[in-house]
Amino acid sequence: MKYLVIKCGGSAFQELSESFYKTIVSIQKNGQWVPVIVHGGGPMISNLLDKLQIETHFHQGLRVTTEEVLDVVEMVLSGSVNKQIVRQLVSAGGQAVGMSGIDGGLLEAIPNDPDHTLGFVGKIVHVETELIEHQAKLGYIPVISPLAMDYKGQRYNINGDTAAAAVAQALKGYLCIASDISGIQVTANGTSSVLREATSAQIEQLIIDGVITGGMIPKVKSAIDGLHNGVKEAVILNGLEPDQLTAYVAGKTVGTKITLNEEVSHA
Ligand SMILES: Nc1ncnc2c1ncn2[C@@H]1O[C@H](COP(=O)(O)OP(=O)(O)O)[C@@H](O)[C@H]1O
Ligand SMILES: CC(=O)N[C@@H](CCC(=O)OP(=O)(O)O)C(=O)O
Predict the structure, then answer these.
(1) What is the pLDDT of residue 266?
(2) CB of 185 shorter than 6 A to ligand 1
(3) Ligand 2 close to Cβ of residue 40 (< 6 A)
């Protein structure tokens, strides 16, 4: 079984077309890949926080999370966004089951940073893969919202990319980060282009140079971390262009493939 963990980013979410979901359903029906969805929803969380007049800010692409913010994060991700994705997959002719990382102890976390500067932001230390495997065997597409819990029952807000990489790592699968952009963009001589491949060393430099910023930082960091820990392949592509996902599963070069330095061929 080849697990394909598809991260659906919140920035593209509201504009994702019917054909994006149809593509996922057909990937599953085809039988070569087992799709698992992990989603985000950052812009929707920020919208509701704004309406509730709760201030929010980000540090290196991660939302500083108080208990009050956590309530909104859980409501938006595990309530609204998760169920919308399930509905879309069902409308596209698939069977899908939504769950939060908290359900069944699916995602176990510890604080992301020991001094709690980010508040209740977690990093994942365990994924209960059996829950995912069982649902997949029953023919469901698992749809996971990135909330997690520690052994005491404390909730954590997990960045969607971090959660997707942890799930891909635990399943020893492939990671496909679908966002609103076709990969890592760089600008040279006034012309911008998307890198076809980026090594961990290149990425480190692009972060230092301020080329990779904001929400792209957790994507590249999670992908590199995942590749170090058993993820077979990691790619960032544009979810707003469903052909990119189709092309990816067909083995074509698409988006930006993230690689570790030692994988680079110097032919
Ligand atoms: N070098 C870069 N290449 C591409 N996108 C970048 C880069 N640096 C920052 N970004 C930003 O990262 C965004 C994707 O992150 P984010 O908005 O968090 O997406 P998602 O909701 O899919 O997780 C892009 O839309 C872009 O604005
Ligand atoms: C810790 C942290 O930053 N959590 C994210 C969770 C949602 C997310 O990751 O959404 P995107 O994939 O759309 O960015 C947040 O609160 O926005």
Answers:
(1) 47
(2) yes
(3) yes
Where do we find the tokens 């609204």? 80
Tell how far the Cα of 181 is from the centroid of ligand 1, in angstroms.
7
The model's pTM is 0.96
Determine the pLDDT at residue 267: 43
Nearest CA to ligand 2 atom 2: 159
C-alpha span between 49 and 69 (Å, rounded): 7
Beta carbons within 8 Å of 15's beta carbon, 6+ residues apart: 180, 240
Count of domains for the chain: 1
Q: Are strands 155-157 and 122-127 parallel, antiparallel or unpaired?
A: unpaired
Please determine, for residue 162, whether its predicted confidence score (pLDDT) is greater than 50: yes
pLDDT of residue 8: 97
Share the mean pLDDT of the chain.
95
Find the CATH number of the domain harbouring 99. Answer: 3.40.1160.10
Q: Is residue 186 part of a domain?
A: no
Place of tokens 């966002």: 179
Residue range(s) defining the domain that contains residue 128: 2-180+240-254
Beta-strand ranges (E) seen in 146-247 are 147-149, 155-157, 174-179, 185-188, 191-194, 197-199, 233-238
Hunting for tokens 């001094």 — which residue is that?
115
β-pairing verdict for 58-59 and 191-194: unpaired
Is 229 a member of any domain? no
Specify which residues 199 forms β-bridges with.
Answer: 259
ipTM greater than cut 0.85: yes
